[in-house]
Amino acid sequence: MTTTHSPHAAHLENVLEQHMCDELVAHQGYRLRSSSDLDRDLALDKALVLEFVTSTQPDEWAKLEAQYSTSADVEFFKQLDANLKNVGTLGVLRHGIKIVPGIKLRLCAFQPASSVNPELTAQYDANILSLARQVRYSRRNDNEIDVVTFVNGIPVATFELKNELTGTTFKHAEKQYQKNRTPANEPLLTFKRGALVHFAMDESNISMTTRLMNGKTRFLPFNRGTDEGGAGNRDVPGDFRTAYMWADQPDGLAALSKDVILDIIGGFMHLLVEETPGKNNVPERRETMIFPRFHQLHAVRRMMADARALGTGQNYLIQHSAGSGKSNTIAWTAHRAITLHDDNDRPIFDTAIIVTDRIVLDRQLQRTVAQFAQTAGVVKTIDGTSKQLKAALASGARIIVTTIQKFSTEHLTTLSGMADKRFAIIVDEAHGSQSGKSAQAMTEALSREDAEDERTIEDIVADYQAARGPQPNISFFAFTATPRNVTLERFGRKGTDGLPHPFDLYSMRQAIEEGFILDVLQNYSLTH
Question: pTM here?
Answer without folding.
Answer: 0.89
